[in-house]
Description:
Number of strands: 3
Helix content: 40-55%
Strand content: 15-25%
Distance between the termini: 61 Å
Radius of gyration: 24 Å
Mean pLDDT: 88
Low-confidence stretches: none
Strand order of the largest sheet: 1-2-3
Largest sheet: 3 strands, antiparallel
Number of helices: 3
Order of helices and strands: HEEEHH
Oligomer: single chain
Amino acid sequence: MKKTKLFTVICVLLAVALLAAGCGGSTSPASTSVYKDGTYEGTSDKGIQPGLKVSVTIKDDKITDVTVVENQETEGIGSRAVAELPGKIVEAQSTEVEAISGASLSSAAIKEAVNLALEQAKK
């Protein structure tokens, strides 16, 4: 009985020690930024018309602004994506946002252009 209790105590202590070691701090730098500050442009031909161009601004490793600077998207349909999607990308800090209903091609073009701009901004 005494050996069983001792074995159990040792197992518990070992488990706690391993858990504590696994939760320890990382040896990597505290902050590793992904993007360089600046304004970058990307262009996509995935929209209704080719040549949709965006401008993406990065500050302190965050997307601070996305602007569609050139487009030939259909007024009232694709123009909704042009108006709404950039703000959603900034809010989400990602292009992994839902497309604008009814404007899937325009949404895809904006996302692709933003991704191309972000590739330029990578360190």
